[in-house]
Specification:
By secondary structure, this protein is of the alpha/beta class. Helices cover 24% and strands 20% of the residues. The protein binds flavin-adenine dinucleotide. The site of flavin-adenine dinucleotide has 40 residues, from helix 1, strand 4, strand 7, helix 8 and helix 10.
Length: 503
């Protein structure tokens, strides 16, 4: 098909991409956003845009025959996952050999499916992870800008203290305190005023109706409602959905040409076309951006890309674990799907852990305290392309999780000892108490200041930028999207000031 041409193209519509799209639009740069997933806007026959976690249907997952939820089993029974029809659902699980990575698919990327936890990292850790970035400027300007734009708010402690929907978090909090540990409220982009109205029955329930990893029908300020809405509001930004960028090559006179595959809801190819642009912003996520760049390097299309590309990948030290509570201390059948509390033991000298108290929104009493622990695992993986299939391969061995498991175990052994409780072995298959074979926080692949310059520019290829989680080298110590957003704000400000000419 004949190619379209735009001054700027943004690939993907997650955090980095949405920041780039808004700031380009505000600067008057006509910009096309290409997103491989759906626009989640039209309610289906049941009146809902997204399906819940208790009754997943084809809307749940990206072209799968069966859901692949993080909790595999309950009491060793295969009761969690369901067969579904193949469809461009909101959550994808990319299964590499020894690590599975959850990502969002659709307009808004990970913001559609994530827990909304909006955490700014400890400054000392940020400085350690990204020493080349001026932390003063980040903490003074870009973190506050990101939080304001994302709509970050906090739960009312009084309401938290009394609602049955956070009993699970209060139980886990008290047990942490019993072990001498500190807990902290975790800010979120879910509207807590809305959540309180859900409890009163004034509005349709979402967080209080077990909605989260397959999308929230209400309450969550996902990117389509914040950055992307503002970007489209500039009148300079347009969006093409179900459009996957397959490859990138340079245009002889400058700029880039993208090969784009458009699919329908059955996954059938509707069209293949080319789009050209002068400025290209890659926001396809840690996996997507790295894959596109590796493909362009390997094919010789973008020979300037160096050896650092594909390095510095990590799962943000993610480990999931569950504890069993005493029958006289129930966690509650009613649980808000949005986590609001964490055990903060990041200052531990040898085993730093930031552990979110996660819900088990099963609709029944399970007696489980579930946690997503973020640890400071120094292990890193690398990406390469499989020579036979051309697909992305992640070199990450399961054993590389050992430091993360050791840290999580150190913390939860203390909690168990102080409360006379034990682990749950029935949740993740294979009688394991710790799940480190999947992650929610893929980071790296195109590390800032190594695979790119200090602002995400790719070497040797003017006008080509990485803007997303691929820039963060494997760990940030807390949930990552506030950092991804703030870093994207910082980088795009510099790029607009120095590189981009309008008109
Ligand atoms: P993404 O948000 O991953 O967006 C990339 C987009 O690009 C996607 O929409 C994808 O469909 C699209 N894309 C990819 N390849 C192509 C291509 N070739 N062509 C066109 N489009 C493409 N983080 C937090 O901070 N707090 C949380 O509470 C939290 N909870 C999470 C819970 C879950 C279940 C998951 C999966 C993640 C969670 N995260 C959380 C992580 C967070 O969502 C991600 O770190 C974040 O979304 C990454 O942002 P990004 O800009 O790198 O790209």
């Amino acid at each position: 098909a004949a190619g379209d041409s735009f001054p700027a193209v943004v690939v993907g519509s997650g955090y980095g991409a949405s920041v780039a799209a808004l700031r380009l639009g505000e600067a008057g740069v006509t910009t096309l956003v290409l997103e491989m997933g759906r626009l989640w806007e039209e309610p289906a026959a049941d009146g809902k845009v997204f399906c819940g976690m208790l009754n997943p249907d084809r809307r749940s997952m990206w072209f799968k025959d069966r859901t692949e939820a993080p909790l595999d089993t309950l009491l060793w029974l295969d009761v969690v996952n369901r067969p579904i029809d193949r469809y461009p659902g909101a959550l994808d699980r990319v299964n590499f050999e020894e690590m599975s990575v959850y990502v969002g698919r659709g307009v808004g990327g990970g913001s559609l499916v994530n827990g909304g936890m909006a955490v700014t990292p400890a400054r000392s850790h940020f400085e350690k992870v990204l020493p080349g970035v001026d932390a003063d400027e980040m903490y003074r300007t870009y973190f506050p800008r990101a939080r304001a734009m994302l709509g970050v708010n906090s739960v009312d402690p009084d309401w938290f203290g009394s609602t049955p929907y956070y009993r699970y978090a209060r139980v886990a909090r008290d047990q942490a305190h019993q072990a001498g540990l500190t807990t902290a409220y975790v800010p979120n982009v879910y509207d807590f005023g809305y959540m309180e109205r859900e409890e009163r029955g004034d509005v349709a329930a979402s967080a209080l109706a077990s909605e989260v990893i397959y999308g929230n029908n209400h309450g969550k300020r996902s990117l389509d409602k914040t950055y992307l809405a503002a970007a489209l509001g500039t009148g300079k930004v347009t969006l093409r959905t179900m459009s996957e960028v397959e490859s990138v090559r340079p245009e002889p006179g400058g700029g880039y040409v993208l090969a784009v595959k458009e699919i329908d809801v059955n996954g059938s190819v509707v069209s293949r076309s080319e789009v050209s642009c002068r400025y290209l912003f890659l926001g396809a996520g840690s996996l997507g951006t790295t894959e596109l760049l590796l493909r362009a390097r390997e094919s010789g299309a973008l020979p300037g890309l160096g050896e650092e590309l594909g390095t510095g990948w990590g799962p943000n030290g993610n480990i999931m674990t569950g504890r069993a509570n005493h029958p006289w201390n129930p966690t509650g059948a009613r649980q808000s799907a949005i986590p609001v509390l964490a055990i903060d033991d990041w200052n531990h000298p040898t085993h730093p852990v930031f552990a979110e108290i996660a819900p088990v929104p099963a609709g029944i009493e399970t007696g489980i305290s579930l946690y997503l622990a973020i640890t400071d695992n120094p292990e890193r993986g690398t990406f390469e392309l499989d020579p036979a299939s051309g697909k992305l391969r992640l070199n990450w061995r399961r054993g590389q999780n050992a430091p993360a498991v050791a840290s999580a175990k150190s913390l939860f052994d203390r909690v168990n000892r102080a409360n006379g409780t034990s682990y749950r072995y029935d949740l993740f298959g294979d009688d394991r108490a710790f799940a480190g074979d999947f992650c929610y926080h893929p980071l790296g692949g195109c590390p800032l200041g190594a695979a790119t310059d200090a602002y995400g520019r790719l070497p040797g290829h003017p006008g080509l930028y990485a803007v997303d989680s691929s820039l963060i080298p494997g760990s940030i110590g807390v949930n990552p999207f506030v950092t991804i957003t703030a870093l994207a704000e910082r980088n795009i400000a510099r790029v607009l000031a120095e590189d981009v000419t309008t008109g």
